[in-house]
Structures are given as structure tokens and as C-alpha cells.
Amino acid sequence: MRRVRVAATHGRRDEAGAGTVLAVAMIGLLVTVTVATSGAVGLVAGHRRAQAAADLAALAGAAALQDGGDACRRAGTVAERNGASLRRCRVEEWSVALVVVSSVRLPGGSIDLRARGHAGPVTALAGLTARG
């Protein structure tokens, strides 16, 4: 008599296609991480640009103030040339303090970033450091 072997399939499942599902899940994860990283990099770069615009605008305002011009008008012009808009400007004696706003487009939309700038004569700072 011949014995016939029957394959036992009880408790086993067919695993065909499991690698495809895993690959699709990994690709989805990779895309999500890439989008999140590009958003974070864009945010940091945008803030650096806003801070540079604020610093340059404050320096231009202080220079205009020393030349007898309108510090806030000059600061606004420089801020606009650097992709930002002047929101606040305050002049105290020979110092200029200001706030600029710059818009950054991110994958999920755009966001406004604020940066502060302050410039004035070095002699005011030297008096502060001499006192300790």
C-alpha cells in the first residue's frame, strides 16, 4: 500500500505579499520623515533670514540716526530689501530697537516669523561691561 502524504496547513497562513506590505509601510514612513525634516529645515532657515533682516535693519537705522536721518524709515527700507516687513521701531537716544516679520512657506502652509534687532553706539555697551 502506498502512503500519501497530506500537507498539514492547519494553523499556517500564506505569507505571500507580506514583504510588499512592509515595503509600502517603510516608504510611507520615509516620505513622512522627509516632509517633516524639510519643514523643520525651512523653519530654521526662515528664522535665520528674518534675524539677519532684523540685524541689518537695526544697523541701517542706527547709521541713519547718526547721520541725522529718519532711523525707522531707513530700517523699514532695509528690512523690505531683505524680505521682511518692519512691525515696530523704537528710537531711544542713539539706539534703535525694532521687530521685523518674515513669511516662510512650509509644506503645510505658511507661517510668519518674528525677529528682533537692536543697534546703537558701542560706547553704551562699553559702559555696561566696565561696571561688571
Describe this protein with a few key phrases.
alpha+beta, 3-stranded antiparallel beta sheet, 3 helices, 3 strands, disordered C terminus
Would you identify the regions where 5 or more consecutive residues have pLDDT less than 50?
125-132
Strand order of the largest sheet: 1-2-3
Shape: rod-shaped
Give Rg in angstroms.
30 Å
Helix content: 40-55%
Give the overall average pLDDT: 85
Structural class, by secondary structure, is alpha+beta
The CA-CA distance between the termini, in Å, is: 105 Å
> Order of helices and strands, N to C?
HHEEEH
Q: Please outline the major beta sheet.
A: 3 strands, antiparallel
Write up what this structure looks like.
The chain has helices at 18-66, 71-81, 122-131; strands at residues 85-92, 95-106, 109-119. It has 132 residues and is of the alpha+beta class. A hairpin with a 2-residue loop joins β1 (85-92) and β2 (95-106). α1 (18-66) packs antiparallel against α2 (71-81).
In short, what is this structure?
The chain has helices at residues 18-66, 71-81, 122-131; strands spanning 85-92, 95-106, 109-119.
List the helices and strands and how they pair.
Blueprint: H1 18-66, H2 71-81, E1 85-92, E2 95-106, E3 109-119, H3 122-131
Antiparallel strand pairs: 1-2, 2-3
